[in-house]
Amino acid sequence: MKPFRSAAPAVMPHGHIASTEGDVPIGMTAGGAADAARGNPIEHRFSPYDFNGGTCIAIAGKDYAVIAADTRLSSGYEILSRNVSKLHSLTSKCILGSAGCKTDVDQLRSVMDIKMKMYHHDHQKEMSTPAVAQMLSTTLYYKRFFPYYAFNVFGGIDEEGKGAIYSYDAIGSYERTAVTATGSGQAYVIPLLDNVIAHRNRTDEKRDIPKEEVVELVKDVFLSCGERDIYTGDQVEICVVTKDGIETTMFQLKAD
Questions:
Q1: Res 175: pLDDT
Q2: Does residue 232 belong to any structural domain of this protein?
Q3: What is the model's pLDDT at position 43?
Q4: Cα distance between residue 23 and residue 141, in whole Å
Q5: Spatial separation of the C-alpha atoms in residues 163 and 243, rounded to whole Å
Q6: Percentage of the chain with pLDDT > 70?
Q7: CATH number of the domain bearing residue 247
Q8: Where are the beta strands (DSSP E) in 146-232?
Q9: Where would a tag sit more exposed on the chain, N or C end, judged by fewer CB atoms within 10 A?
Q10: pLDDT above 90: residue 80
Q11: What local confidence, expressed as pLDDT, does residue 25 receive?
Q12: Which residues pair with 172 in a beta bridge?
């Protein structure tokens, strides 16, 4: 004899009701609805991370550094904001650029700002750019078991007045390099920077590119990237760091 089955609708989690006709609550799969109807446990997933997109690049010159990033903030296929800066100045001679999870980026910036203020109170001077680069590495490594979901580029002017660019992974491994990029458009940007700036796979003589030419190149790079990456767009914030300070310009991209 088959067990008796009630025709009354089953009450689902979150107040949803699934009838015997096979209705499935919004946000639940048919399998999940069937498990709930039978009283079986249901798996719920939660991730503390979200990838909010964006692209950051950094270029070192003879006596300057250029750090640039777009201002779009996304989640999935939604644009949450068109005017969120991914660049953050730590001293008058260095800038941190971060793509990834916005909340983790904000927390990382806050921790770095606190450490910068402590150093300034103790020594009555700003930290040098290579020292900040090392401190950023140890800050990221300290959180290696629950990492900041932030992918960083860092750049500025060192004690000799030369451009210094540093590339990082999520847990603090880093290296000084001539060009770097991170974020959702990294794969579209790096080949161009490697060829034009780093002068790789070329036979002509390498030359020192003036910062004005690099800024125009950065604009072209982001225009190209914005055509291929849905998470890169709206505006580009371009910061040029020299011994005289930081100069910031904005360049408009496509808004779709």
A1: 96
A2: yes
A3: 78
A4: 49
A5: 10
A6: 86
A7: 3.60.20.10
A8: 150-157, 163-168, 174-177, 179-183
A9: N
A10: yes
A11: 53
A12: none
Domain count, the chain: 1
| Residues spanned by the domain of 196 | 55-253
Give the span between the Cα atoms of 199 and 145, in whole angstroms. 37
CB 209 within 8 Å of CB 195: no
Cα separation of the two ends of the chain:
62
Global pTM? 0.81
Q: Which residues pair with 99 in a beta bridge?
A: 151
Q: Does residue 135 form part of some domain? A: yes
Per the domain annotation, does 46 fall within a domain? Answer: no
Q: Return d(Cα 250, Cα 126) in angstroms, integer.
A: 27
Angle at which helices 129-142 and 102-123 pack, to 10 degrees? 130
112 has a pLDDT exceeding 90: yes
Q: Is 2 part of any domain?
A: no
- Do residues 220 and 214 lie in contact, with contact meaning Cβ atoms separated by under 8 Å? no
Q: What are phi and psi of 14, to 5 degrees?
A: 65, 20
Query: Collapsing DSSP states into helix, strand and coil, what is residue 233?
Result: coil
Q: Name the CA radius of gyration of the chain, rounded.
A: 24
Q: What does the alpha-carbon distance between residue 72 and residue 84 come to, in Å, rounded to a whole number? A: 6
* Average of per-residue pLDDT across 15-31: 51
Q: What is the full DSSP assignment across 7-55?
A: -SPEEPGGG-EE-TT----TT--HHHHHHHHHT--------S------E
Tokens encoding 120: 């300034």
- In the numeric block, which tokens belong to residue 168? 């990082």
Percent of the chain scored above 90 by pLDDT?
A: 77
Which of 81-119 are b and which e, b meaning 16 or more Cβ less than 10 Å from the residue's Cβ?
Answer: eeebebbbbbbebbbbbbbbbbebbeebeebbeebbeeb
